[in-house]
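Dear colleague,

Following up on yesterday's call, I've attached the two folding results inline so they're easy to grep. Please treat them as preliminary; we haven't cross-checked anything against experimental data yet. The first protein's sequence and structure tokens come first.
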Amino acid sequence: MRMVDIIQKKKHGEILAENEINFVVNGYVNEEIPDYQMSAFLMAVYFKGMNKREIADLTLAFVDSGDKNDLSNIQGIKVDKHSSGGVGDKLSLVIIPLVASVGIPVAKMSGRGLGHTGGTIDKLESIEGFKTVLDRETFVNNVNTHKMAIVGQSANLTPADKKIYALRDVTATVDSIPLIASSIMSKKIASGADCIVLDVKVGSGAFMKTVDEAIELAKTMVEIGKSLNRKTIAVVTDMSQPLGHEVGNANEVKEAIEILKGNGAEDETTIALTLASYMVVLGGAYKDFSTAYDELSKIIKSGAAIKKFKELVQIQGGNPELVDNPNMLPQSKYHLEIKASESGYVSAIDAEKIGITAMLLGAGRKKKEDTIDFSAGVTMVKKVGDNVKAGDVLCILHTNIEEQQEAGELSKKAYSFTDMEPKSLRYIYEVIQ
């Protein structure tokens, strides 16, 4: 078997066999296939695509390239949740205790942030003492006893995907549905869950910019899950503006606490409850979505959800007192108000620009090895649909960096205005089952 023949075959839009896909993935991981041939292969896939069976085979090849998380010692149906990435997305912090509070085990592996999107692990590490590395026995025991645990992803989880993604990033082949779907689903399959709920975000702060693209990606990932015997549901959600009012790390933890207390913004509360509801239905706690949504809403109102989050912080070594006193979280030295220079309604907020602003303030990473400032971030004072007068505060920048001109200018450019009140945004576009 020769790589050049496989490239030629895919270049003409032909269907690759399972052994050919395995040859490509294994050969590249073992450094038997050079970057220039893999680049040609990725570009052929970009233009000619893959069918459902090819995408499933590629996903499995990624899974088989590294470690698999064995959750067989955890009792019950294990349900995982994955977000395709966004700005201000602190929903995992809300969903883990919410789902665990009805007895559905959540054995969560999450990643760190890079570029304009944040990472759940970074946010949790802004909590003093919170451990995101647990030995296997502690991880399993926490899930069996408390129905929840969260750790950073294993370094050897889907190494083929990591290596190929780095090449996609520099060969303009990132935005390919088969490659995105297999990349995301391989990590979820390797993580060991029985059922998966996918939060596929769409809009200026998401990877998929149009609803049609997001729906296509969602359908592809659900098909992969089904073909590999994982019950999978995908929810296409809005990311045309930052989610909620906080972007960063410590400030997003603070906002997650408010959501769990019942004081969250409408957009993030609706999406969190929707995702959690599908998770608990898959886990067998409730028979249908509507019942689950109503019951989980009651759990938040009762105070049980915030109590469960406090429990999560405590069992993973964090200081549970900060749940009652969020001001104990890291605080920035400088707070810069960005004010409107015109009046009107906020018609749009470029979420990607806000995400990059947060990164410039120290809340994110340009490169994987960069350190982050947990206290840095952006507070969104005004959101889409709000009526603004010239001089009103649009957002507040939090940082320990004295010079903030670039971040200030970028955050102001993120806002667009109109004389007419805009239509209300949809939070949920589609559910694919």
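Below is the second protein, in the same order (sequence, then structure):
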Amino acid sequence: MLEKVSVLMPYKPDHGVRDVLCKWVQSFYRNMMPEVEICIGECNSELFNRSLAINNAAKIATRDVFAIIDTDVVYDPQLLIDAVQLLDKHPWLIPYSKIMDLSQTSTEALLETNAQWPLPVNVECKDRFELKDHKPVGAFAVLSRANFDLVGGFDERFVGWGREDNAFRDAMNTLCGPYKRLNKYNLYHLWHPRTEAKGNPNFENNHKLYKEYAKRRGNVDEMKEWIKVRKKSGL
């Protein structure tokens, strides 16, 4: 099953904690899901362009199923198996219910262990959106390569954190069909110093760009034309 999967991981080296997390998460895949193809897409610009990094990962992928996931997240491997099995019934999946943020202490303890599932230490964590009426769509998506190509991948005009996942969601839901959420699983996000989207100096530009996707949401012809124009511009 997992031999069909390329895991696309957007990444910006920092010569620090994010590098350590990325190496540990890669070892998690090697230990627990050795069949998958790990594709690290790098972006080294001053403001991290996650869309560019994901697209770079897709360019080196050789499999027909894409699992797009951040480099600081682990989860029950059965989640990915279930998601892949459901791709014949749904155009794409958001295969988790909650993002559980690990504490710094728990993350540091975990990094001293052999990466595996179940997690080898008891961890202290908190639901990121516990006090918000919000269901996240970032961090992890499973879809076919064909559908990724149909929407033109991620829009690289989103610079710095913010709104690229929402734009991709609207494009996918409009052109490919609505996602299926798997509510039985959680993601476990390893601690690192946070960069908030609203701290991004380009956030307002990202927000304006996202509005162009939002106003085309549900309109297949308009969304197709919007993506066609973007792809002609090379983005």
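For the second protein, one point worth flagging: The beta strands are 5-11, 37-42, 65-69, 73-74, 92-94, 98-102, 125-127, 140-144, 180-181, 186-189.

Best wishes,
A.L.
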